[in-house]
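Help wanted!
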Amino acid sequence: MGERAYQVTITDTGEVYRCPETVSVLKAMAQLGRKGIPSGCHGGGCGVCKVQVLSGEVVTETMSRSHVTEEEEREGFALACRCYPGSDITLKVVGKMQKAVTRRYGFV
Amino acid sequence: MGVMRIGHINIRVLDMDAARHHYENVLGLMPTDEDDAGNLYLKGWDEWDKYSVMLTPADRAGMNHIAYKVENDVDLDSLGKRIRDYGIDVEEVGAGELPYCGRSIRFWLPSGHLMYLYAEKAFVGKAVGTENPEPWPDGLKGAGVHWLDHALLMCELDPDKGINKVAEVTKFMEEVLGFKLTEQVMVGPDHSIQAATWLARTSTPHDIAFVGGAVMGLHHCAFFLDEWSDVLKAADVLAKNKVKIDVTPQRHGITRGTTSYFFDPSGNRNETFAGLGYLAQPDMPVITWTEENLGSGIFYHTGELNEAFTTVYTEGA
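Answered by r_m:
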């Protein structure tokens, strides 16, 4: 209550939702049952929720360097599970989960 | 003789304070030491060696190595020779280089994961001691897990390119390290592709498991609880602590274990696993799950795989 919240726009799907400044961009999306950004470990380790912030400010927490290099971070790439909005933001989805429709042999 | 059990897992974490809270207060492991490099060592209350989890601060999540304890020091020589004879390089590691352990040997599994074998580790003792012990100690935190039970390692599987590291590492574990194959998943035409395996040295359904994926990695490490009600309570502890739960309490068809999956604050997957499953005696016939029943094998209640479960994981090296 009384907590600041900002608008997140996912350009790929056109989804728009409110994200409190203390909740990660990924978690706020998942809590609303939305699906635009792939949802994985929520700990900055698996990389499936990688996004590029196209406009607006975000505060980020530690992310696995396997998935976001320092150079990429400077260019606005981030893991949505480690991103907190500091203004209204727009982002595009970069990460992906291997889709079940492409699987041919059980797990792969 | 030979490999006794899983000894420890060395996991990389991105934020040590968050990791410490998770492993100590949520899982309920007990810290036993920290070193100058910032590594944190923990054990379950029911374990007697100094640590079963070694957390290492890093800028990448995942696993550095996994270690198994052998029964006698001479096993390191005999197993080292068997591994070399199989065509895999073995490095002799001096006492203390693997922290608080005697001499060890290390080698890369055919799946690309680093494994250590050691015979001695510093002794701490169970939290309840050995003389007229109570069944459980007071003051347990969080889920109060007993011990590190097993790990599941992801292995590269691409049948179209003839790559099957699951089958390669399974063959190695059986033929060289003397593990028993308890269960397997067979997929593809004629069910001819071994896509996942569960292997044991103890009499539990598995001490290690391998599953095929696009790239190798660490799928999860699992911690033992007595029973189903403990898994349910552990899930409450997870929710209270805002831990990202991957799979709410379920039963596995494979191993019959009752389970819940979740992620540590760096995205490494953990499991709370309860129940014996069954007694995996050396002459027990191998259990096979076919591709059509894969969902029930992994998640018995829903009978469906979830997309994240087999595609989201951290690095294995």
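OP: Thanks! One thing I noticed: Helices of chain B lie at 16-26, 73-85, 165-175, 228-240, 294-298, 307-311.
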